[in-house]
Amino acid sequence: MNARTLKPALLGLAIAVIVAACATTTSPTGRRQIVGGVSQEQLDQLGAQAFAETKAKEKISNNGAETAEVRCVVDALVRQLPPQWRGVRWETALFEDKEPNAFALPGGKVGVNTGIFSVAKNQDQLAAVLGHEIGHVIARHHEERITRQMGAQQLLGLGAAIAGARYGQGGADMVSQLGGLGVQGLFLLPGSRTQESEADVVGQQLMAQAGFNPGQAVDLWQNMIAAGGARPPQWLSTHPDPQSRISELRRRADGLMPGYQAARKAGNVPKCG
Questions:
Q1: Staple partner for 135: which of 12, 20, 202, 244, CB 3.0–4.6 Å?
Q2: For residue 176, how many other CB atoms are within 10 A of its CB?
Q3: Which domain holds residue 181?
Q4: pTM, whole model, 2 decimals?
Q5: Is 91 a catalytic residue?
Q6: Is position 15 within any domain?
Q7: Which of 69, 133, 144, 198 is catalytic?
Q8: Buried b / exposed e along 134-152 (16+ C-beta atoms within 10 A)
Q9: CA-CA distance, 109 to 131, in Å (whole number)?
């Protein structure tokens, strides 16, 4: 085997080794996922560390009513989670920040900016936000993202080494720079859009099961669009196109209404706001 055919063979072998080091699973929506780059314990530690750093850096809100509403909505959603997630000690924090944003991290950490109340006008709309964020956690999106990034970094390092062996340091540097752009634009970001859409599905189902009106997810995103300004092109965004997102949320809401009504009759009637 000559050098020209050896390099692709080595690249194929490296890809096989990287994939073999990971595991394949199925997401809550039936999507194939590659995970296993980190353990659940490591994920929980990373989540706890990130949450502690955010609390140390950001100002905690002293608005008792809003803090209680966030806690109430989270508790209602958590009661509908699979057993392995209900057993987690979920912690919330409300940050004094005008940006309408929220997040959930492995280990049961939920952070919300006070600005979210400028677009989430009632408890159901707040549940749409928090259901979506918790959906990222229970769909193992953080683990999936870390696993992908680890694989991408290893492949880029191998590509740079091969280019460096043939073209010198300049070739290695070029592969690293251009390769990083390619992975970001064509590999990591499309995965992020997939995860965002999946979190919408999981979160809307979760809010309906908890007794929150799933149709309010549509109103939430209409409020988000009204409050937002310029946004990057869809192909370079980590979120789906807003109008497409609203159409999907509206379509799913119709199918979720019977389950929502059944949940209410069964006693899941949150009174958070």
A1: 202
A2: 15
A3: 28-265
A4: 0.77
A5: no
A6: no
A7: 133
A8: bbbbbbbbbbbbbbbebbb
A9: 13
